Amino acid sequence: MAVIIDGKAIAKRLRDAVAVQAANLETKGIIPGLAVILIGDDPASEIYVRNKERAAQKAGVNAQTIKYTADVSEVTVLMKIKELNLDPKIDAILVQSPVPAHINEELIQETIDPSKDVDGFHPENIGRLYANRSGYYPVANTPRGIMTMLAHEQIDLAGKNALVVGRSILVGRPMFALLQQANATVTLAHRYTPSDTLMHLLADADVVIVAVGQAGLIQGTSLKDGAVVIDVGINRLADGSLTGDVDFASAQEVAAAITPVPGGVGPMTIATLLQTTVELAAQHHQIELEQAWQNI
Ligand SMILES: NC(=O)C1=CN([C@@H]2O[C@H](COP(=O)(O)OP(=O)(O)OC[C@H]3O[C@@H](n4cnc5c(N)ncnc54)[C@H](OP(=O)(O)O)[C@@H]3O)[C@@H](O)[C@H]2O)C=CC1
Ligand SMILES: Nc1nc(=O)c2c([nH]1)NC[C@@H]1CN(c3ccc(C(=O)N[C@@H](CCC(=O)O)C(=O)O)cc3)C=[N+]21
Ligand SMILES: [Mg+2]
């Protein structure tokens, strides 16, 4: 039976470390500021935003949410982003994805100041990530949080076969970049990967990261014995409960370690968002965070 990776507990450790760093910054008169822009009234997004606000407050991060109705004009959102770019109290800007179809999401991502780009969506930051550049730049929080989890579980990636299923800018593609940086041999599967190909890839994968949004996509019988399984998917079942993309019961029989949904990747995403916000605040004030994330 697999070890169940307790994302909630690891996220708590990370949030506590963020609180320590935020308290250090506060002695220098700095309170990290995060602005979240939420367009439309998607109930799931509202839950994420509420979770973020609560966690931010506890960690000493000043979070504000700017809400627009779904019919807001693109120019209104762009002007708000430009205002936040110039606001010295704001260190991090997040525009909740997806945005309504009449708004150009690429333009939104390119308008956010790269030094306030807490999701790491700006082409400048993505370029740095894909080029393995040195120096600090923000990286998407879900994949980064997954790397923190794997490190906490002492899962060594060097030389391992890692399979990422899903290629979004939010999860799959930055995940690919981070795994190859950790010296795994990485494969990226997606909608056009034939299912028999996916089965061959799964049979060979030591580490599987699934971010698709389809309950039951991966069954335990498809996994390699002893695989590490990271389930990013968030799917709501008819009874209102949440489930991932992996069939947990069957996967648990075969895997060495697996993340649950809820209580796995989701809490890590929120804690890492706060971690990145604190780092961006330190960057803006040219402060070196000392011994920051040592014991996560
Ligand atoms: N726990 C957390 O912190 C987070 C959870 N999520 C959840 O993760 C899931 C994925 O999110 P996100 O990446 O934003 O979603 P997107 O819809 O942006 O991307 C989904 C990806 O899955 C691919 N795909 C679709 N169907 C299949 C299939 N049958 N087999 C293989 N690949 C397929 C798509 O391919 P193509 O590129 O061809 O369209 C696409 O690359 C969602 O459930 C979301 O709610 C997301 C972010 C954070
Ligand atoms: N610009 C942008 N950045 C994002 O990072 C981003 C986004 N847009 N759009 C939506 C997705 C999704 N996402 C989640 C965050 C937290 C949980 C989370 O906290 N999940 C908990 C609990 C969920 C619950 O119980 O409601 C869990 O899995 O245990 C889930 C999903 C961030 N996303
Ligand atoms: Mg997409």
From TrEMBL:
What the entry lists under Gene3D superfamilies is as follows: Leucine Dehydrogenase, chain A, domain 1, NAD(P)-binding Rossmann-like Domain
Known catalysed reaction(s)?
A: (6R)-5,10-methylene-5,6,7,8-tetrahydrofolate + NADP(+) = (6R)-5,10-methenyltetrahydrofolate + NADPH; (6R)-5,10-methenyltetrahydrofolate + H2O = (6R)-10-formyltetrahydrofolate + H(+)
For this UniProt entry, what's an example GO CC term?
A: cytosol
Query: EC annotation?
Result: 1.5.1.5, 3.5.4.9
What keywords sit in the KW lines? Amino-acid biosynthesis, Histidine biosynthesis, Hydrolase, Methionine biosynthesis, Multifunctional enzyme, NADP, One-carbon metabolism, Oxidoreductase, Purine biosynthesis
Q: Pfam families recorded for this chain?
A: THF_DHG_CYH (PF00763), THF_DHG_CYH_C (PF02882)
Q: Which PROSITE patterns match?
A: THF_DHG_CYH_2
Name the Gene Ontology biological process terms.
L-histidine biosynthetic process; methionine biosynthetic process; purine nucleotide biosynthetic process; tetrahydrofolate interconversion
| SUPFAM superfamilies, per the entry | Aminoacid dehydrogenase-like, N-terminal domain, NAD(P)-binding Rossmann-fold domains
Q: In what residue span(s) does the Tetrahydrofolate dehydrogenase/cyclohydrolase catalytic domain sit?
A: 5-119
Residues involved in NADP(+) binding: G166, R167, S168, I234
- Domain named Tetrahydrofolate dehydrogenase/cyclohydrolase NAD(P)-binding is located at 141-284
Query: What is a GO molecular function of this protein?
Result: methylenetetrahydrofolate dehydrogenase (NADP+) activity
The answer to keyword Hydrolase applying to this record is: yes
Record pathway? One-carbon metabolism; tetrahydrofolate interconversion
**Family stated for the protein in its record:** Belongs to the tetrahydrofolate dehydrogenase/cyclohydrolase family.
> What quaternary structure, including any partners, is listed in this protein's UniProt entry?
Homodimer.
* Free-text function comment from the UniProt entry: Catalyzes the oxidation of 5,10-methylenetetrahydrofolate to 5,10-methenyltetrahydrofolate and then the hydrolysis of 5,10-methenyltetrahydrofolate to 10-formyltetrahydrofolate.
**Full protein name:** Bifunctional protein FolD
Q: Which gene encodes it?
A: folD
